[in-house]
Amino acid sequence: MNIADLPAVDTLLRTALTEDLGAGDITTRLTVAADTRARAQIAAKDEAVVAGLPLVRKLCDILGGDVDVRERLADGTRARGGDVLATLAGPAHTLLAVERVTLNLLQHLSGIATMTARFVDLVAGTGCRIVDTRKTLPGLRLLEKYAVRMGGGSNHRFGLADGILIKENHIAAAGGLAKAVLAARAGAPHGMRVEVECETLADVTEALGAGAELLLLDNMTVAQLTEAVQLIAHRALVEASGGVNEGTVRAVAGTGVDLVSVGALTHSAPAADIHMLLSLG
Does 45 participate in catalysis according to the annotation? Predict the structure, then answer.
């Protein structure tokens, strides 16, 4: 399904337009004749992996301005500086009204996709997958995780209902790691893996003994990860997490872990440099 057709995305886009437009675009109303028609190009100013282009048409449709939107590149494409991503033609009032929300979303989502692609490239050939986290902006998780996929990454759980991940505070509240894992296994829906966060090799041993199926090795050094992977010996899937960056991810992936989760993909990706320029016509 087109990401823009999801009801939650429709609601988000309407909220974003309402936030930006308020009672109306007073500058455009005072300076541009109501019957003026224009064309616009959305273009990348630097290299970027594109994400969010289907939202452009949806934003224009919501405003009801009879805008002809043509995507020149597909989401997931690696654009070069100067590449035209989309063209628009229609009432100037509509194009100006939609400009800021369109660019905010395209720049943010393409920034996420671009950073994700760099991480994916860095682990190429290791057999390790790059995954995201729940460290997303409130209300934007659906789109941000979509952008991760456009960059070649994979999604971890979308929300708390989508997977069992026992972390340090669960362990503290449950009265111990093994106790938490055993309780989760006893009540887990069919087919849902039990994952547990491990900070030490002792945690790894305890988690394996309790039957955990996926181990999240948190903030371990490369040497510790290597030892942990050898200890696990394919008895569980292994995820590395905590402080992984572009300078360390290759070494982390090389330890033999199955997944590397990177919170920075969604909470720290710089915006892609994209602009929109209008001309009369």
Answer: no
Q: Which residue has the tokens 């009369």?
A: 280
- Name the active-site residue from 14, 37, 39, 100: 100
pLDDT in tens, 106-159: 999 999 999 999 999 999 999 999 999 999 999 999 999 999 999 999 999 999
Q: Which two tokens stand for residue 125?
A: 């050939």
Active-site residue, from 167, 179, 235, 246 = 167
**Contact yes or no for 125/253 (Cβ under 8 A):** no
Per annotation, catalytic residue among 203, 218, 239, 258? 218
Domains, the chain, with CATH or none: 3-117+270-280 (3.90.1170.20), 121-267 (3.20.20.70)
Collapsing DSSP states into helix, strand and coil, what is residue 229? Answer: helix
265 half-sphere exposure, CB direction, 13 A CA radius? 35
